[in-house]
Model the fold of this input.
Amino acid sequence: MKNLKKQDPKVYKAIQGEIKRQQEGMELIASENYVSEAVLEALGTVFTNKYSEGYPKKRYYGGQEYTDVVEQLAIDRAKKLFGAEHINVQPLSGAPANMIAYSAVLQPGDKILGMDLSHGGHLTHGHPVTLSAKVYNFVGYKTGADGKIDYDALEKMAMAEKPKMILAGFSAYTRQLNYRKFQQIAKKVGAITMIDVAHIAGLIAGGAIPNPVPYFDIVTTTTHKTLRGPRGGMIMCKEKFAKAIDKATFPGFQGGPHMNNIAAKAVAFGEALKPSFKKYATQVIKNAKVLEKELKKYGFKLMFGGTDNHMVLVDVFGSKGVSGKEAEVALDKIGITLNKNMIPDDPRSPMDPSGVRIGVPAVTSRGMKEKEIEKIAKWINDAVENHKDEKRLKEIHKEVIALCKKFPLYKNLK
Ligand SMILES: Cc1ncc(COP(=O)(O)O)c(C=O)c1O
Done:
């Protein structure tokens, strides 16, 4: 970054600070990951200069011989990863991907049956503060007493509500969904099916959990979570929705695609096609299972009874009398980054909820395995139980930094 260093020392310094923060910190935010240096290189290229409205071989501006190459590579590789009939790699991120998908197949005011947000659904699945809720009419299904989705109740709701779309997918639900059930219920009421796999796309691509693509009409995702690509979105669909999805993306919702980002998506999808990514996805699940077991051992209550994916949702307030916010602050002090999170039907407020969400995709990318996860669980318990003891927190922080140094990150970035 020699040009940046000379020209704009303030921005350069902030970037250096962020590199160090990532190198020395333990990243347990379930939606984060570390991209490869190859992905970073692709992001920082001259493709950022290019306008490419339209699609490969059907563009509005000239000079597209190389943009067409990278966009087609991204599409072809994603098709190999997910087996989708049609893929659009242009959505700028997960939230726009969802709005695009709704608008492609629904009219304003149409009803969407989605997962209740306090039970794990994402903001763009109908939270009142979002545009999605202003345009569409959302009704929410919840998890049952055992923490899992009650498919009989979902079917009854679908029969009563007659939604135009049944939406699956989540940001804070830890169990495997029964894709076939969604398909069967939607068929009974004539609804379109959509699933948002933003969180689990990498686990699907790596074959560590079942692939929903054959069961759903539309599948949206981000590319930057478990899939370990650049920040961005993507929409997969059955051929019969292909034209509608493409038109809703451009010109319906977006202008020119971000081609540097699409080049980086192509690189990340190339990485995900390698056998090493299968190993990664499998290890993510193993690590999450160890985290589940260890946290339970320390007396933490896990929502939904445990996990089948890359994260756990912990009721820290119910388990230890420490709120989600207090836990987040204490863990920040020991160099462990995660987020406070509402638990289903949380009696506390969103700004200071009962839970924390903990994910292992980033530490797994760093090479951490079962042994390290055991240490992380121990530190989490120690920090939560001693959240007011600054001296103890400082001691743990040193241990966290020492472990991070054993798993170096971005050695070549200067
Ligand atoms: C399930 C789900 N969908 C969509 C999004 C939104 O993605 P983005 O932040 O890229 O807009 C998220 C982000 O956390 C998510 O978890």
